[in-house]
Amino acid sequence: MSTAHLLLGVISWLIYFNFQFVTAEVAILSVSSANESSSSGFCVSYNPQFKSIPSQLAQAIEYPLYDANLTLGCNTTDLPPDLNNMALEVSRGICTFTQKAIVAQSLGAEMVIIVSNDLPTPHSDNAAAYDTVNISIVLLHTSDWLTIHDLYPQGVNVALYAPEVSKLDLNMIVIWLIAVVTVTLGGILGGVGPEGRGHVPLFTQRRQNSEAPSIQDPSQGATVKRTVTLTALTVVSAVVTMTTMLILMYYFYSYMVYVLIALFALGSWWAIISVFQPAVKLIPFCNYRLPENRLPVLRDRPTVKDLLLVLLGLGIVVWWVIVRNESYAWVLQDILGVIFCINMLMVVRLFNFKVCTMLLMMLFVYDIVFVFITPLFTESGTSIMEQVATGEGSGSSEQIPLTIKLPRFSSSPYSECTYPYSLLGFGDIFIPGLVVVFCHMFDVTVHTNRIYFIGSVIAYGVGLLITFAALTLMSTAQPALLYLVPCTLLTTLLIGLKRGELRHLWSGKLNNATPVPNTGRLINNDNDDIITGTDDITNDSVQA
Questions:
Q1: Nearest-5° angle of CA 154, CA 155, CA 159?
Q2: Which H or E element spans position 67?
């Protein structure tokens, strides 16, 4: 396996991070000065199983806040004996949330506010505690506690409420459109046949490669290696690599984030060149080639217009790197992300439907484990996937760029509580997109009316809609592949079963069969029976 193969494989593996943001049980703590009319709202987490709270501030009861100077509040000895109709503020630690609430309740408090460095939902392992505790248990972030003390040094009153918000999120609609369009374009460009499959950087077009089969570029007279095909062994290596990278990101986020920023920048530059090179070749001017030279990247004498494309792509990527933390940088990131995903779908291949199934099922389990299972083992109770996606608790202002990122268009009372952007990981586009590309390749080979391709695109769109619906209804993180994998695989499987082509679809080889013109079917050359399939549908690909 060449270094280029390895780099391509690593980049394709690294883009799979399914990023979702968890919507916890959150509420607004309204804080107002005891002597003035000014007030502020702060995001807190709470558990309605202990005590329900109103949905409007006008209905919320206001309590004077007793600041125990970050006393732990695990027993009554460090607290005043009378806290009737007050809210008690204590520090997290030593004892359980329930124990702190029972102590505060015994002293007459109506609410206990626990200052914490993170905001997990307060809970109890003992179901009876939900009947014993009749006051609100609230977790307030340490930074917000400091802000309150800076704004209101003379004492405050607090009120707790949980506003109702619309379930319809415009961001989901926009992200759905971006994802479906990207998968569709990637499927079209990646599966149209040897003459239209992916490209390589123009400065390496003329170089021969003895490691793998290649096809001839008729416009340049150069040997061009078109694709890299992932085998079963490579798929296993990919999942192991993704798991390792995600764990490294979790423990060494402040360092690893810059590695991914660099990889995304290089991958996006390459993608701009690869995706737009065919269009640039159609430009009738600037066809002059550079003079003979021995410079490493220019010795193949690219044309002036090719060189301009390279410089334009480099300029766009450098611009994004410089402004990546600005409020408008999400526009550039999304544009580069779409081009990046399309290019990867044009280059990376799955060998057959068996490998498709193997890859998606392994990532199906991967997705569930890192979204649903890991919160049981993390100190904060937050999934590893979420913490890596948002950089929460890392101390770094940088964020991983491997996502489609949209600011929240609609205003919400919970703007202080939620992550300010909606995210969809590239993996939720790229991984199902590989199945879409494979389906289109099979359609082209069998000369169908694109039934596999159309079916897989529709299945992807439906699966993503189900994901967003589950996210809205359950108000918790949803691993997208939990829904995308069954939708895409089962749809393709059913089409192949209905058409009698499942065996050929599964193996990726169509043996002794040739297409029947205008039928989208194949004839078995041994006995003239109408079946499906042609030659190996990946006969011009490079296996990795």
A1: 150
A2: strand 63-67
Task: Give catalytic status of residue 529 as yes or no.
Answer: no
Helix pair 170-190, 451-474: axis angle to 10 deg: 160
Tell me the residue ranges of DSSP E strands in 250-307.
none
Q: What are phi and psi of 525, to 5 degrees?
A: -70, -15
Following DSSP, what letter does each residue of 116-171 receive, concatenated? ESS-PPP--SSTTHHHH--SEEEEEEHHHHHHHHHH-TT-EEEEEE-----S--HH
Are the CB atoms for 263 and 169 separated by under 8 Å?
Answer: no
Q: 136-182: per-residue pLDDT in tens?
A: 888 888 888 888 888 887 778 888 888 876 666 678 889 999 999 99
**DSSP element (H, E) containing 365:** helix 353-368
Between the CA atoms of 236, 238, 241 and 247, what dihedral angle is there, to the nearest 10 degrees? -100
List all residues 6 or more positions away from 12 whose beta carbon is below 8 Å from its beta carbon: 238, 344, 348, 430
Residue showing tokens 């107002």: 32
Residue from 428, 526, 535, 536 carrying the catalytic annotation: 428
Neighbouring C-alpha atoms within 13 Å toward the C-beta of 463: 26
Q: What is this structure's pTM?
A: 0.72
The C-alpha atoms of residue 140 and residue 142 are separated, in whole angstroms, by 6
User: Of residues 367, 529, 535, 540, which has the active-site annotation?
Assistant: 367
What percent helix, strand, coil does the chain show, rounded to 5? 45, 15, 40
pLDDT tens readout for residues 379-398: 767 788 878 877 766 677 78
Encoded amino acid at 241, one letter: T
Helix (H, G, I), strand (E, B) or coil at 484: helix
Please report how the helices 329-347 and 304-323 are oriented relative to each other, as an axis angle in degrees rounded to 10: 130
Sequence-separated (6 or more) residues with CB below 8 Å from residue 375 = 381, 382, 383
Whole-angstrom distance, CA of residue 130 vs CA of residue 136 = 11
258 closest CA partner among 440, 391, 380, 139: 391
CA distance 182 to 170: 19
